[in-house]
Structures
1.
Amino acid sequence: MALMGAGRAGREHATNLGSLPDVRVALICDPVTAAAQNAAKLARADKITESVDEVFDCKDIEAVIISTPTETHAEYMERAAKAGKAIFCEKPVSLDLARATQALEVVKECKVPFQIGFDRRFDPGHAEVKRQIDAGALGQIDQFLSVSRDPAPPTKEYMAKSGGLLIDSAIHDFDIARFFVGEVEEVICWASVRFCEYAGEVGDVDTATTLLKFKNGAQGVVQNCRRAAYGYDVMTEVSGEQGKFVIHAESKTPTYHFRKGGWERDYYYFFMDRFGPAFRAELVAFFEALSCEHPLSPDATDALESLRIGVAATRSLREGRPVKIAEVGTERVRES
Amino acid sequence: MALMGAGRAGREHATNLGSLPDVRVALICDPVTAAAQNAAKLARADKITESVDEVFDCKDIEAVIISTPTETHAEYMERAAKAGKAIFCEKPVSLDLARATQALEVVKECKVPFQIGFDRRFDPGHAEVKRQIDAGALGQIDQFLSVSRDPAPPTKEYMAKSGGLLIDSAIHDFDIARFFVGEVEEVICWASVRFCEYAGEVGDVDTATTLLKFKNGAQGVVQNCRRAAYGYDVMTEVSGEQGKFVIHAESKTPTYHFRKGGWERDYYYFFMDRFGPAFRAELVAFFEALSCEHPLSPDATDALESLRIGVAATRSLREGRPVKIAEVGTERVRES
Amino acid sequence: MALMGAGRAGREHATNLGSLPDVRVALICDPVTAAAQNAAKLARADKITESVDEVFDCKDIEAVIISTPTETHAEYMERAAKAGKAIFCEKPVSLDLARATQALEVVKECKVPFQIGFDRRFDPGHAEVKRQIDAGALGQIDQFLSVSRDPAPPTKEYMAKSGGLLIDSAIHDFDIARFFVGEVEEVICWASVRFCEYAGEVGDVDTATTLLKFKNGAQGVVQNCRRAAYGYDVMTEVSGEQGKFVIHAESKTPTYHFRKGGWERDYYYFFMDRFGPAFRAELVAFFEALSCEHPLSPDATDALESLRIGVAATRSLREGRPVKIAEVGTERVRES
Amino acid sequence: MALMGAGRAGREHATNLGSLPDVRVALICDPVTAAAQNAAKLARADKITESVDEVFDCKDIEAVIISTPTETHAEYMERAAKAGKAIFCEKPVSLDLARATQALEVVKECKVPFQIGFDRRFDPGHAEVKRQIDAGALGQIDQFLSVSRDPAPPTKEYMAKSGGLLIDSAIHDFDIARFFVGEVEEVICWASVRFCEYAGEVGDVDTATTLLKFKNGAQGVVQNCRRAAYGYDVMTEVSGEQGKFVIHAESKTPTYHFRKGGWERDYYYFFMDRFGPAFRAELVAFFEALSCEHPLSPDATDALESLRIGVAATRSLREGRPVKIAEVGTERVRES
């Protein structure tokens, strides 16, 4: 297979690929040679290249992992699909819903296996809760809650191209909402700039709260924030007839420090500390499903539907009213 | 002092009064003699009566605790105020905002000390967090979250007279929202009947989610539900510039049972197990403030403003739109 | 009933007596008038006295609570027993095993109800685990662990009269060991002075570890220390065939403070914060058993056997060898 | 480098070697071809062999990992040392203290780098606490506690060759005791067969409690058990002047299941779930130290001294008395 993109996520994928004994990485593709070389070493890859053409032209390559900048995802997906390669693509497919839809259509027509990079589903906690929900442990689900906070805002440059807090970050919460509860019918979002001035300058917010009405009548809430002095905070709760599940990784190390005044523990700061195993697990799942010819998951629908919730939330924020997901057509998230 | 009402809350107050060495309970007033007698024993009261007149006429009585049915609160408050007695009144003052406002006006004019029964403020966890917030531990507050679930719905009769989930139960969450973050500007509420049919029959809901926009720009969420298989669930979270506080009482007893498959703990089931000490602490605070001639808290404004949020949330639910607190005049919560 | 001794424990008992509606405190007896007056107010007692004779002579008094200094326990127990009064006595009965045995013999002969003040049995956690063990939740018990640390050493004066760390403090751990696992056959104790010089001067230690061999073959460990910067630390673990129970009260308030670097909680500092409810529960149990004419527990045997383990551990420490409980006759704990 | 032994631990090492980009595995050596092949795939090794000679003769091999059966460790260490190769050896070096001492002498004389496989030191929790202790966070250390329980006893065959519970399992606790507190002066051990009959048949025990007296006067306790219905239980506590540290990994997944009666979490069952990252980290540390020419740790002294504590505990158990570590010469652990 080939790895496209050797940036932050690409590097993590390279490390994981290097530890999968059944996977041979033929090619690392990145315009920055040093990054490609570094990733190649981690992935024990055969070769590096700057040319994306080389990836799509190489007959030996059966699968590609796309972790390039978002604006290239749709094109590369289409090219990979037409070349008959299985695709693992980082989220989101595109900030332009029409473009995303189009690319996913091509994938569908070409009948190539496709998986979107919603790593949180592969966190042992979230995966276990999904199993329990499917086994009926909750009965009817009534309420959902997801809180995600980053330790600090990204750079202005990143933010400007990210699609905003509701697409870039909350999309993970929206995906888990769908994963646990089902399709969303309507959203309302209240959000604002509270501390990160340049978020406002690029048309983004730093603090958001989104209400979700699910098609089955359940109620959801997503809280997002671009700062958290204590670290990288992800908490999920889903409750219903028989009880509730909470997923919260409380500490990075299993250490309790009792000292004058009480006791303390550490906490996660980098998302990779919290979801590193999930990043590995999603690739394991991808290659296992390929080798067993099982359907991949999360798939094109998951990629698209979470994006639509993000777009609807963005519109709700702008227009100050509840927005039905069905209203969301093929609009761009933000004019840039 | 005198205790008016010897029902569930009254009985609890009686027990706590009995354990306050500086308080002499002169009179227990309840139309049900057996209940009054029982409470009198718990409170070591001098005497019982069926006559509310006797309470207001007795010159020796300096303070009254009103834990009678909600519809009598406003009248008894006014009569107590006019008789110059200090007042501790269970929430809410009235389901009719105009009536509540009027009663609180009388209290103000008579210059008698007044405290409303928002016990949650006296929970050691919530009280400690308030102290820390006031000391600047959080800096600017950005987000607030409060989850309250009862183990099971109340009776249809109780529900019909309760003012509904948003007044009867969420009012505690709204009070803590104001206590921690400040005044609320606008709300939107999504709620429905999910499992308790008779809730619908009396015009109530069983599951609700309310968004709060605070005047200082912070964002809040309140989740309420009338069932929780695991027990009485109250969780509060407030986050900001410097970090966050979470208040969650995890278990009734400090016991961990490790057995095949993992480990387990118990949980709170009755609200009095969780907030029993807070019920006692609010009375201690009431009598201490009286004896020191300190101002009482939570006061008439707290009583009124939390009620207004509940009324606004109820209106938002009915009209399917965000409602500003300023819109809420002197309306009744529900025509009965 | 009458309360003898209005010191630290006596004052706590007075508060609890004041809140028990079915108990009438006729007399508080303490040579310090101010202390007696204070306790009388808390207990809503009829009268105070400096004269112990008055307590034993008063026919109306059916029960006495003895929380006077340890050296008086045995005498007062005997006098109360001969006067036909039910007895609740703080631990230990005496530092002199012979004297304790003698006093308990008198109690037995007079057939008066007797309860020893091992409050830890009435902690909701320990009580629940006992119920579970009796219901077979653990099957065969293999190991026991009890850790008790005080926040700081007591005064030299207190220490000199206390019987030492192994009698004064570890006796609670030994009692719980017997409560959960059964009779102890042999002990070995390693202990030393690590930080509190005056402990050595009065023949005491400040840090101790005691191994217990139970008659049923189970193994136990008790760790004690006279300092803990973080507070009052009591942790109990009992494990066996089907799993284990841990009893550990993790925090005084249900508050989590997430801040730079991780999160923190408070902890117990005063033993009364941790075991206050147990102090109340043991009195409730005492009066309930009296009124139902049920046998009291923990009883004279419990009082004596825990003391014997403490004496055996003290001997093991002095002689540097394992000591069988059966070796321990009627010796004094320490020559003073 | 070469990996000798492709059993359970060897396989784990192979996986970790496969994910270390800077390490080239030239050779996997195991008499069982299938195991060697499997490990070779995981480690992406160049070649497999049945011949240990090939390992020691190959000039290209700079380092060996010895995870063969215990009885071969000493010989292979000596041969590797004489061939000038760096050595990572699983614990213990030998069940025969004289043999272990001899082998470690050879290693010393040959001046090859040597690391013993005490993985627990590399657990993020234990490593962090060591850093804190070294930074003075505890001040004087007074007490140490380590509890280790396996979910179920190993097979009789394994047990017969393992050196017994005190060498095979408790040696990890003894190593952490030395790591955190310092050298041990004296031990006393009480142990017995409680449930695993064949433990007795091969001269082993299934439940043990060991007291440690450290040279600095601190007191330690180690509890071991060969069964735990709930899983693989490792808890470490170290306390002193300024507070205490507890290391306890509470659950395998960050999931809380609230259901009727309370809530539950899962727990670790296999030691590799709990200490998998530590297994990887010890190899990372080994190769990093080699490439930086830093001293390795834990070293030959650590290997020997923990073994001596185990031997002393075994002797204490047999002879029913405290045993000083200095008494332990070069004896075999058990005649087999």
Note: The mean pLDDT of chain D is 95.
2.
Amino acid sequence: MASDGVEVSNKQVIFKDYVTGFPKESDMELRTSTAKLKLPQGSTGLVVKNLYLSCDPYLRGHMTKHDRPSYVQSFNPGQTVTGYGVAKVLESGDPKFKPGDLVWGPTGWEEYSVITATESLFKIHHTDVPLSYYTGLLGMAGLTAYAGFFEFCSPKKGETIYISAASGAVGQLVGQFAKLTGCYVVGSAGSKKKVDLLKNKFGFDEAFNYKDEPDLDAALRRYFPDGIDIYFENVGGKMLDAVLPNMRLKGRIAVCGMISQYNLEKPEGIHNLMSLIVKQVRMEGFLVSSYCHLYGKFLETVLPAIKEGKITYVEDVVEGLENAPAALIGLFAGRNVGKQVVVVSRE
Amino acid sequence: MASDGVEVSNKQVIFKDYVTGFPKESDMELRTSTAKLKLPQGSTGLVVKNLYLSCDPYLRGHMTKHDRPSYVQSFNPGQTVTGYGVAKVLESGDPKFKPGDLVWGPTGWEEYSVITATESLFKIHHTDVPLSYYTGLLGMAGLTAYAGFFEFCSPKKGETIYISAASGAVGQLVGQFAKLTGCYVVGSAGSKKKVDLLKNKFGFDEAFNYKDEPDLDAALRRYFPDGIDIYFENVGGKMLDAVLPNMRLKGRIAVCGMISQYNLEKPEGIHNLMSLIVKQVRMEGFLVSSYCHLYGKFLETVLPAIKEGKITYVEDVVEGLENAPAALIGLFAGRNVGKQVVVVSRE
């Protein structure tokens, strides 16, 4: 227990300066400072030791200097990168937490953090699953997939669903939820290995490598001769434009992300929005932050499904905080296979 | 009564051939044929005399050769143009209608028509309002405005709404519904005369001429410093792209039409769809054909409001079937001020 206020060395990932275009590892730097493992007098926060960090595409938004308010605030150059992670409580000024508790939620990309916004943390009660799952399957990505699919897509048995970036942290789960619902599920990804995962590990009905398809519209027509009822949108750009004319009457597009667009100075133009009228399609953007109240219900659904082997999850685990910048950058090149996790410490 | 099978001269507007780009008057031609005002033995259709015809932007869709199924089927070259209109029944093989009844619904651009799809017709029971209103305010445009605003936009008192093409057949009504709901209402249109109508006749809070605004984003920021809760989309293209970043959290975009795009060989690209995620916006296309069951409720709301002067309506009335092609083409140049109606005959 480290509540005696010892000073420790604290490795940190620092955000250097605003990014335009593709981020590079050199947009972040590693720094080692010292941290006192003690809360200031009267603090209601926590001192935590970070165990696992989550690499998520939305972090790219923090690296841009925004001229309008955004749901992702711009980082300040020189600050520690922040994101979702799993941590162990070392000291607590909040009666809801005690030393030794495991939590997941917003934390810093560093070995030790002081968290003041404790209301954003979830206490981890179930430890008979891999702890790292709370960075993804049992964390934000899982809740995103759950809320996005069940709350937004109004899925019905027998409907057809297409998922882009389907082997990613969210996509792999959406596909499995859709299969459990009795949908026909097709996913796309950017390598043969990922396509194999989709078909053989996650049980998608079909999957394809979008890089092998010069005509995305033709590919979609092939997999969906009668059209798409639900599109779970993770990619944006050309993919979205190809999907729109393939939507069925009263189709739904849950806009979860548009990773192909995050690094462009000007997003690509989408030309086929008239399909929204022709097919009476609903397209809706959503943020998981509006669905935290569903977390309990989500766990009740997902934990038993994991234990019964009905839901499986693939992580791409990188060891060591020093490798976190490369892991994050890798997301935008599609280098990760499955949910990208960084291990800071295993205990 | 003309049920004795007399042969009459029948002026018709004929669709000549598929159109790309802007339609021209010469894409249609006037022909005079003869019509026998008698139904074939056993027919369950109607012989009608057409009184008023509705010029609607969606008609442009019929003039395109579609390579995919669309809600507007391609016209066949050489056929009579068809659209919505008000007509008087001359002869009936359908027990729900009798000679002398007034109806509105799909009919031909000609003096006399035989209508077989009688299930698409609405009988007109209220004739203490101008009959031409059934081409617009009390017809498809009115129901479009009603269903689009009340069913899709989930409007709440105090919310802000922006309407493009606001002085058109649908826009002028949406604005008045929104004012009656207690919203802050801003509309745009393409001339000073139309802007004056919006402010002085329809009671919009603000209105502007989009042609006077080189920076649409700046204009929208000026009228909506705190953002837009509801966008009623009639225009598409650059206007939509300017609106997206100005939407408020949980905003709604009812996609009714995209008139700026109908004559382009390739629709303009929309770059700002990421705002759907950032602001958790819902964008949904709709067709009035799915809302015909609301027509009775709609009339119950609107008829008293017209009589009490709470809702007003501006029509741009052209006399004579021979002027119908020019009137239709005029829509795409914004020449009409208010709902474009063609009078074939006043009785």
Note: The CA atoms of residues 185 and 205 of chain B lie 5 Å apart.
